[in-house]
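User: hey, got a sec? need Cellulase (Glycosyl hydrolase family 5) folded
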Amino acid sequence: MSASVFAQTKVIAPEKIWPAAKANAWYKQQPWLVGADYIPANAINQLEMWQADTFDSACINKELGWAEGIGMNTMRVFLHSLAYQADAQGFKKRVDLFLTIAERHRIKPMFVFFDDCWNKVPQTGKQPERKPGIHNSGWMQDPGDPAHKETANYPRLEAYMKDILKTFGHDKRILLWDLYNEPGNSGKVVASLPLLTKAFIWAREANPDQPITAGIWKWDEKAIELNTFQLANSDVVTYHCYDGPEQHLRTIQMLKMHGRPVLCTEYMARPRNSTFINSLAILKKENVAAINWGLVDGKTNTKYAWDTPIADGSEPKEWFHEVFRADGTPYRKEETELIKKLTEDNQQVARGQNTGTGN
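Assistant: Yep! Here you go:
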């Protein structure tokens, strides 16, 4: 990304973007952030997670307890605008309950609004059954395609985002707001820029206490316009990287040049040589938040690789994502032991706070 391209990027409400000093001071107040992109094992997508009929607080409590047990202290959690529009007050009550459960387990989540990944036309009501051996077979985009580019949808999306941000924008249980997951994915490229721009405008107008961001995820020339816009408008730098440790470290070093906190909000795909064993210590040494995709094996099928379906649904030779099996046992104990070891400092601080001896 050249400086000249970056300089020409439109900055939304520059007076509201956190100065780098404020962003870095905020980050220093956080423990080293370790967690997962989370959806309950019994939900195939964001709608099944959040709709009244299928929201499962007991499952969430159980699974976040497993996460707490290995030292995780954050989760990246996808919302969905259709769940809100079907039942706005109920949706907000469920978000509040989720936050209560997360706080019980000393987990401070971040929430994601829009998403360009996987199935194009989300619908409320009963969600599809998972397709055997297919990664994220039932995950839904938000608002979808072509919905993302239809400006007639913008008023309802604005109302949704602003209501959530105004309801929870002063809530100390929330870490940050991730406005748009992988904008431009599913072949959309810059067609997602108008909604991405609106998302930043709406968020700045709502003006939450927590930082806002949209993570960069694609690194070729087609992504330059989106990446520079996201970096110019985010309070903290977030990114996705499924590369091996050497390339991942180079990515971190590049992103640190922006002078803001750096948080990895997706990594860890074992067959791609992105693993806890070879990457987590690097993220800790660099003081970069480490949020891997997937916590518990379940209906999303993300133990299967993106592009390697297994038609009969049999066990893959090596899991792509996920930390725990459905019964709460680790997929690989050496991984969960490493996470516990590297987060030991965090856990000692938390124990000290609970007994009144913390700083």
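Quick note: Residues 1-7 have pLDDT under 50 and may be disordered. Let me know if you need anything else on Cellulase (Glycosyl hydrolase family 5).
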